[in-house]
Amino acid sequence: MPAPTPEPQPPPPRTLALALQGGGAHGAFTWGVLDRLLEEESFALVGLSGASAGAMNAAMLAQGWARGGRAGARAELDRFWERISAAGQLGPIRPGLSARLFARWGERIASDRWNVDHAFGSHLVEWARRWVSPYQTQGAETHPLRPLLTELVEPELIRESGLRLFISATSVRSGGLLLFDETQIGVDHLLASACLPHLFRAVSIDGVECWDGGYVANPPVVPLVAACAGADVAVVTINPLTAPTTPEQPTAIAARLNQITFNAPLLTELRGLIAQPDAPRLHLIEADTALRDLGVYSKLVTDWAFLCWLRETGRQTAELWLAANRDAVGQRATLRTAALS
After folding, report:
1. Motif (GXGXXG) spans which residues (predicted)?
2. What is the pTM of this model?
3. Per residue in 164-213, pLDDT tens?
4. Residue 188 a catalytic site member
């Protein structure tokens, strides 16, 4: 009697690591990208890296992963951004009424409707950053996000997730990179990675004063590639890499300068990796078109309608990327040098 034909087995999941750029409230775009990618069971997630908001997204994903796998990671990200919105509801910068109303009615909104660079609150923040230091307005232990992160972050779960995790911070005195992995990350490390110096006092880690990691590694890609050997690495960007025209208005100039500043470390890392003879399989999930018109100060807006718009925009961007590149993961890189020039 012939032996029964064995059932065909599905191919093993393809390993994927994610490097998450920072950008304040615009990190909700990455929340949406992650939410969609976590639905994709053909990928086995093995590692994460991030700076600033990217670091917080990475930590929350890892923590939720330890708690309940893919579903747990999605739920943890939802909870984090809901709490961020609630904590910032009294912030000085608010999106326009028309944008909030359209969002409430379920209408898709052009990104320029969320641009708040000309809002009164934005001018107030701009004035304050020139004349008022956080050392004049905050106590040594009164970081505005500390109570929330102390409540939400569970370092032991991050360590137990089984995912490699790297987040960056900048040494204030040396200007060098400080890198923390999953065995080290706690509340202070996340605060350090997201410490914009005109908003917050420097955060001390083992006696080293730290500022936002986005200045030197946004996000750290090289250590993620080294730790997740053989895995594809997808970089999720928030800051548009290119501009269609040369900006002429003051707010547009400031926005483009901000983008260039926070993209420079990433571009340096990616160019170096692509130039290697055994270059890793790199991919880019970018917000170039979707977030181009948002300006600088919407990065400080935590209005729930705005965060939900960013999340949905991130999900749609991930969906388009998957449609074009799903089959390439595990086979070939889709990031080309031309995209970085």
Report:
1. 22-27
2. 0.88
3. 999 999 999 999 999 999 999 999 999 999 999 988 999 999 999 999 99
4. no
Single-letter code of the amino acid located at 124: L
Which helix (DSSP H) or strand (DSSP E) does residue 264 occupy? helix 250-274
Structure tokens at 321: 């990327």
Query: What residue spans of 275-341 are helical by DSSP H?
Result: 304-325
Give the single-character DSSP code of 327.
G
Q: Of how many residues is the chain composed?
A: 341
Concerning whether 52 is annotated as a catalytic residue, the answer is yes
Please state, in angstroms and rounded to a whole number, the distance separating the CA atoms of residues 150 and 165: 19
The Cα 235–Cα 257 span in angstroms is 21
Residues of the chain predicted below pLDDT 50: 90-110, 120-123, 127
Closest of 250, 258, 314 to residue 26, by C-alpha: 314
Residue 5 lies in a domain: no
Q: Which of 35, 117, 188, 212 is catalytic?
A: 212
Of 293, 305, 312, 296, the C-alpha closest to 89 is 305
Report DSSP letters for 99-136, one per residue.
Answer: HHHHHHTT----GGGG--TTSHHHHHHHHHHHH--HHH
Helix, strand or coil, per DSSP, at residue 209: strand
Q: Which of 35, 49, 52, 85 is catalytic?
A: 52
- CA geometry: angle 122, 128, 130, nearest 5 deg: 110
The whole domain housing 77 covers: 14-169+179-191+213-340
